[in-house]
Amino acid sequence: MSRPLRIEYPGAVYHITSRGNAREAIFLSYDDRRRFLDVLAATVEKYNWLCHAFCLLDNHSHLIIETLDPNLSLGMRQLNGVYTQAFNRDHQRVGHVFQGRYKAIIVEKDSHLLELCRYVVLNPVRADMVSKPGEWKWSSYKSTAYAGKIPDYLTTDWVLGQFSEEKTTARQAVS
To answer: What is the pTM of this model?
Structure first.
């Protein structure tokens, strides 16, 4: 039985999760997480994506991605494939890093998207890894909630715009 085709169209927004093979860790070090974000940045640029939120846990990742062109499958093949090659090379391993295909759920760009962005950045708190989302370095929370450096691959305007037209007021509401 073949697997169902992905629904892809311009402007689609997805909640994407990629889990480690056999629920194993996909990030073993700081360098692994940094590399994943570097590959994400290149993928966002190459495929004309908007990344609204992300969170890297130990054995899986969450991304909220808006595809301006209908190319989710191509971009995810790039993201997970390049990361897998680097991970295996760095750790002298072979084979799968990710458990099967990534999961991608289409999201309505309204209050549901805002709730998903919250869900994504609160994952480390729910997993008892930190007590506050700002303590977790590997999510988009700090870049969205505080006026610090925002990575080029992260788009915060839509999320902040849900709280206020003025960024300072919006950041106060988020944090």
So the answer is: 0.92
